[in-house]
Structures are given as C-alpha cells and as structure tokens.
Specification:
Layout lengths: L1 H31 L1 E3 L1 H9 L2 E9 L4 E4 L2 H4 L9 H11 L9 E2 L15 E2 H6 L3 H11 L1 H11 L24 H12 L7 H10 L1 E4 L4 E9 L5 E9 L4 E10 L8 H15 L5
Parallel strand pairs: 1-3
Antiparallel strand pairs: 2-3, 2-9, 4-5, 6-7, 7-8, 8-9
Length: 278
C-alpha cells in the first residue's frame, strides 16, 4: 500500500524534473542566440538617448543588442502599427490596393504633407495619422480584434472607444522581439493572409533600394506617457536577410527636432557596425 501511495508522487517528481530540464535547455538555447553589442550602446549614448537596438540574423538565427531587457519590454506600437493596419485593411477590403485614395477634407492637419489627397502608399510613407484613423474606424473594433488575434500581433487593447487611437495611447504594447517575430513571419510568408496582400505590403514597405541591399520598414513615435520612438524593418543583402527593431527615448535636454531622424540614424549606424550595409 505504501509503494502504491508513493508511486504517483514519484512519477510527478520525475515529470517535473524532466520539464525543468527541458525548460532550462530552451532558455539556454535562447541565451546562446543573444549576443550583447557594446558598440550599439556607444551609438545610443553618443546620441543622448536611451533604449535598445535589436538586429536579428535570419540565417544564423541570432539576435544582437545592447540591452536585451529593453527589447522584451512592451511599448505602444505608434505608427509601426501602420504595417498591421494596412494588412488588415487590405484583407477586409477596406482598401483595394496601395493606390486607394484618401481625400483630404480641407481641415488643418499637424503636417503640411498630410494636407492633400494621399494614396495608401503615400499615407504609409508620410505616416498620415488621420488617414489610418479613418481606416481603423472603417475596420471597426470587432474585425480589428479578430485579425490582431490571427496575426498574433503584440498585446493590443482595442474597443469601440479607442478604435482610432489605440496604437498611439493607452495600454497597447508590443516589444522589439515581437516586432521582429511579426516581420519575420511576414517576410517568410507565414502570416495567415493572401499572397496579394503580402506582395502589396512588401512592395509598399521598401524605403531604400540599391545594388548592395534593399531596406524595408516603418518608423513610429508615441507621446502618451513619454516620447518613445521606433524604427522596425528588414534588410535584404545579396545572400542574407537581417531584421531590425530600434526603440528609444530621449534623455533630458535632448533636442527634439532631431528625434524624427535619430531613430533611423542609430539603426543605420548599427547596421554599418555589423557590416550589413556600407
């Protein structure tokens, strides 16, 4: 009877030990894929900001960053959400393609480049908030939540009261690691979306193309609780692909006129440091 009583406890102990060993191995594998880059910290310090640059080598399955703790913290996606917003708009046929036109109603907007009729492509590259607020309202909270779950995109809080602001303020979050995971699935055709939507997005996201590389991505900037800036995307070279996600915040006495460019500047410097681009 004693043996019979002890047997389930013994089996439970063995099972827990095996699970712990498996978990330890998995954590060790993740740690082995993370390489700390002090050079990235130097780039950030010299820019008078704080935050993290994260670069992922697809072929080697390896991450490079100055601060892996920062890369795992969720932040408001800001205008980087225009990638997911565009995908959902195309999938729900709220927009037909990247040439769909958004008419300007003549009301003043924050930037002069927004005060004109814009195609979806232009609205994406000019980061036109009013255009994408219109898109989000047309999609609606229910469909937005359904597609965000399908896309497995961050931890986004959407309802009818915040449908046109949830990516700019509130409790929605996505980490740098999640940004890269999402972009990697888009790049590898592993998102549950049509091939047509995928091709439109990949074409629309291209920022720079030359003989050495093609760089695609999107910036973002939220000011809900503090100024927080993003630059996410990927670089295709002749034989390799690298993903990047930079997230930064200004230090005190930072010249905010530099903030729109600093997100890109530090990322380009990191890519050059790794000899991914020249």
């Amino acid at each position: 009877m004693k043996i019979s009583y002890l047997l389930p406890i013994l089996l439970l102990f063995i099972s827990c030990s095996e699970n712990k060993t498996s978990s330890d191995k998995e954590e060790k594998q993740v740690e082995n894929r993370e390489i700390v880059m002090s050079e990235f910290q130097t780039i950030i310090d010299s820019a008078n900001i704080e935050g993290a640059i994260l670069i992922y080598d697809l072929k080697e399955d390896t991450y490079y960053s100055n601060n892996f703790e920062w890369t795992k913290e969720g932040k408001l996606p800001a205008s980087t959400f225009k990638i997911a917003n565009s995908i959902i708009a195309l999938e729900t046929e709220i927009v037909k393609n990247d040439s769909t036109l958004f008419k300007w109603n003549g009301e003043p907007r924050n930037f002069s480049r927004w005060e004109q009729d814009l195609t979806l492509r232009d609205a994406f590259h000019f980061s036109c908030v009013p255009c994408y607020q219109e898109v989000a309202r047309d999609i609606g909270a229910n469909k937005m939540n359904t597609y965000l779950a399908k896309l497995d995109y961050g931890d986004i809080k959407v309802d009818s009261t915040n449908i046109d602001m949830f990516w700019l303020e509130g409790e929605s979050k996505i980490s740098q690691l999640q940004q890269i995971d999402f972009l990697k699935r888009l790049y590898l055709s592993k998102l549950p979306i049509s091939k047509r939507t995928e091709m439109i997005m990949k074409k629309m996201m291209v920022i720079e193309k030359n003989d050495q590389y093609t760089l695609s991505g999107k910036t973002g900037w939220s000011v809900d609780k503090e100024n927080n800036g993003w630059f996410v995307g990927y670089v295709e070279t002749q034989n390799k692909t690298y993903f990047f996600a930079s997230n930064v915040e200004p230090k005190k006495q930072f010249d905010m006129n530099r903030f729109p460019m600093i997100r890109k500047d530090i990322t380009y410097k990191a890519l050059k440091e790794m000899k991914i681009i020249e």
